[in-house]
Design brief:
By secondary structure, the protein is mainly alpha-helical. 85% of the residues lie in helices and 0% in strands. α2 (17-67) crosses α11 (270-287) and α16 (364-389) packs antiparallel against α17 (391-419). Keywords: Cell membrane, Membrane, Transmembrane, Transmembrane helix.
């Protein structure tokens, strides 16, 4: 791997206006498509069917970070520091991701038979798993090449096209004479995801050029890859273990109502996610000089980020009664859940700024350690609270863990900054 490129004032100053605009447009368009997709699928399946789907995909999300051992993040880091290596790193990351995703699909299918309380056929679970563990991850690799080279319009185009294909699959199934069952949707979801990923890989390869894959180069960086994977896995735990616990202890209907509210919160976070995605390469570039440089990027994003979080919280709380109107009466329980979770975008903005500053400055291990610790707390809280309190227990666990992560990561950043 080449030496880090020197940081210029332009790089250190934060994401460019053009990149932010591109990512806002891309993420905004993607949010609209995801919202339509969510509306179609959640309404067609009802709260119970959507709850089973959510539990399976939550289990997939818990395994997903280890499917590629952080290959996309290793690729972004390498290409940011050596743009001429884009073709080779893309080929290597795609190879590692494809093979790892296939292996992870088998793991999830086996785990589902033990962990989930569902009679869903294993073949259907495998179809849902391969869609995310192979399809989504390969699409992420395709988008990551453009993120690393700061061609954010192309990053947005990759994300939009992949999401659009899934939406088209849902609409096609809805319009077909075939009943919109969970099994039918699983096969449609898998087909749309794998076809979309294949098309994106071909398009990106034509753009960046052919190069031999050297997966062993990524294997040799397994320590860094594992650190990225552990951090992402911990994040998946505190985002998704509540859904697995709810399906197991409170039933599919409660899981569907809770997940619908959580999904709306996640979509509301889209503008902040777009800005953070545009800024992500700059954290690495500024962080090449140490934590103060990466912290400077975080500080410049803090005020607008917090303002956004407050506005999002108010909008979610006020708009909560619309959920059963849009999704159907089986989602009546989602209203109170959405009001309770409305503060999550604010907490996520705060913790992502600190987390990305640590990663950009080379302190991914510290970030991962905190994420693992909070993930453990979330598992314990879910096991203690969900069996007796159901959805209310999941809400308490989610808010407590996001708050703990925000406070804890900033405490680490500021302490290390003072220590020099």
């Amino acid at each position: 791997m080449s030496s880090p490129a020197p940081t210029t004032p332009a790089v250190a100053s934060g994401p460019s206006r053009r990149n932010v605009t591109a990512m806002l447009t891309g993420h905004g368009g993607r949010a609209v498509l995801q919202g339509l997709y969510f509306l179609v699928v959640a309404r067609a399946l009802g709260a119970e069917g959507f709850g089973v789907l959510s539990a399976v995909l939550a289990l997939v999300a818990l395994v997903l970070p280890f499917a590629s051992l952080g290959a996309v993040h290793l690729m972004i880091r390498a290409v940011v520091r050596d743009p001429g290596s884009a073709a080779g790193n893309f080929a290597s990351a795609a190879w590692v991701t494809g093979v790892g995703g296939a292996a992870a699909t088998a793991v999830v299918t086996a785990l589902a038979a033990v962990v989930l309380d569902t009679e869903l056929p294993l073949a259907v679970i495998a179809a849902l798993a391969v869609a995310d563990l192979v399809g989504s991850l390969l699409a992420e690799v395709a988008a990551g090449v453009y993120t690393a080279t700061e061609r954010m319009r192309r990053t947005a185009a990759v994300q939009l096209s992949f999401t659009a294909l899934r939406l088209l699959g849902a609409l096609a199934l809805l319009a077909s004479p075939t009943a919109f069952t969970l099994g039918a949707w699983a096969w449609t979801y898998a087909a749309a995801s794998l076809l979309g990923a294949a098309a994106l890989l071909v398009a990106v390869r034509r753009d960046v050029g052919p190069a031999p894959a050297r997966p062993l180069a990524y294997v040799r960086q397994w320590r860094d890859g594992v650190q990225f994977s552990i951090g992402l896995a911990a994040q998946a735990v505190y985002n998704d273990v509540d859904k697995v616990a709810l399906e197991r202890f409170a039933g599919a209907g409660a899981t569907g109502a809770y997940t619908a509210a959580y999904r709306v919160v996640d979509m509301a976070f889209t503008p902040a996610r777009a800005v953070l995605a545009a800024a992500y390469p700059r954290f690495f570039a500024a962080g090449a000089e140490g934590l103060p440089g990466a912290l400077g990027v975080a500080r410049r994003l803090a005020a607008p980020g917090v303002a956004f979080g407050l506005v999002a919280a108010a909008a979610l709380a006020l708009g909560a009664p619309l959920l059963p109107v849009l999704l159907g009466p089986s989602y009546a329980g989602s209203v109170d859940v959405l009001r309770a979770l409305a503060v999550l975008p604010l907490l996520k903005v705060v913790h992502y700024l600190a987390a990305d500053a640590l990663t950009g400055a080379g302190h991914q291990g510290v970030r991962s350690a905190w994420q693992v610790g909070v993930a453990g707390v979330n598992v314990v809280l879910c096991l203690l609270l969900v069996p007796g309190l159901g959805v209310a227990g999941a809400v308490v666990a989610s808010l407590a863990c996001d708050g703990l992560l925000a406070v804890g990561l900033w405490a680490v950043v500021l302490r290390r900054r003072r220590a020099g």
